[in-house]
């Protein structure tokens, strides 16, 4: 990619305005905590329908974070992230079916499966520009339903598999399906925040900003590509594991090319944000839009497409300093 | 052996169509560094417009008129699509590539909205003619595909090698910065490649319809083979796109006959991964190092 879509925090003029940054800091720290607090007590007020929908929404938000992570740290687009989500979901379902393990025990395995799959697909395109990765992931997304249907004795075929075991024995099922994804989302956001300060994150951002400079420091671009995809795949697989737990079922139908494209749309709508609020905006958009538009089947792709274009073009049309604040403030 | 030659022949025929799709993708990528993921959906919409004009949904006219009218519509649609993402093109390849996905979603939605999501069948006005050349069975459809592809590629060759806009296209794809310094209008070159890609997409999608049924997603999934062809040929090589298309066509035919027919997309994935490993920049691309 010759030009980068989003500049990193290091390159932002925000750093040159300590007063403005200092004034905004308390709000940006308080808002997520406040939001988290509201979400924690929400099941006590809202009905079962909303706790169920919001549980799915949190899991989707994690999946969106994985796409945003890839864009932010790798400067890559993936049109196949539904596959990594599926890897996590099926890992959980299969572990329960054959080993009787609950979602909590299967979660680390799901993450590892997602990471391995991500690295495997980044490997052939490790020296190439991102379009090759995009096309390869698109082919991956298309071939997944075929493979799942072919190994139907293992994967459950069209009907899919069920996830029934409790994560915490004894607690109410609907609350588990709400709180587990919420905790997962909070944990992933926290991890990403800390990751930003790590050596690895610095290396990845340096490579994305200037591959040549990074290579002369001894950081290999192919290594970064593998790392990015592996981490992103792991996050997506965690999302899939929680999604399968919250919806209590997995089937090939829920992991088509459309799933992957919609995840990308959600990520664009959240402006590739890696924060709690940003990912929740994307997750809500992705989860609630189809519900709101339940009667308007054919309008759904048009609306998603229009939303995507509107966000992309709208952000581009904003004055540069507003855009920098929206996009770059915190990577 | 007879099977093999017959399969290879029909693979070449469908490969020609993949090649036409791939050329469109490569043209746009070469001139503007944008991967147009809307290509299949836009071509599918075009095929449906021809269907609408001939089957009485939008009108009831002769084939030739319908195709010419649709060509005109396609030129407008492609130009509009490009102008929509034009503000992004020079800013970020990634963002403009994502925007083409938005255009594709809208095109898909419009197709479903106007024509429904049912499967329809459309016949091309071809004479019923058949001949047997050894193991190869040649139909009028095969001849039509070969003739149209040869004509289209020949015209494109002349357009790029002999006309001013073609020279501009080559200059821009070789070095956009130098071309702009020399006073070329990059937007016009981009517009040219989008429109030509759209026309090629329309022709390819019309020709693919007799072998498959027309549905709101059939052309889009056919264009995925075109993406695989573009990868095989190296994303920025026009001859590579042609070779890649024919290669994919033949290989897919052989695989689905000798191995199993239900794994079409999985074969594509395997081919893409394998080619990326063996020839990282495509079969016809020159390898170059980077300077720090």
From TrEMBL, chain B:
GO terms for cellular component: plasma membrane. The chain crosses the membrane at residues 6-29, 41-59, 65-86, 98-120, 140-160, 189-209, 267-286. GO terms for biological process: amino acid transport. The keyword Ligase does not apply. It is a multi-pass membrane protein. InterPro entries: ABC_transp_permease (IPR001851), BCAA_transport_permease (IPR052157). It is found in: Cell membrane. Keywords: Amino-acid transport, Cell membrane, Membrane, Transmembrane, Transmembrane helix, Transport. The keyword Transport applies. GO terms for molecular function: transmembrane transporter activity. It comes from the Bacteria. PANTHER family: ABC TRANSPORTER PERMEASE PROTEIN, BRANCHED-CHAIN AMINO ACID TRANSPORT SYSTEM PERMEASE PROTEIN LIVH. Belongs to the binding-protein-dependent transport system permease family. LivHM subfamily. This is Branched-chain amino acid ABC transporter permease.
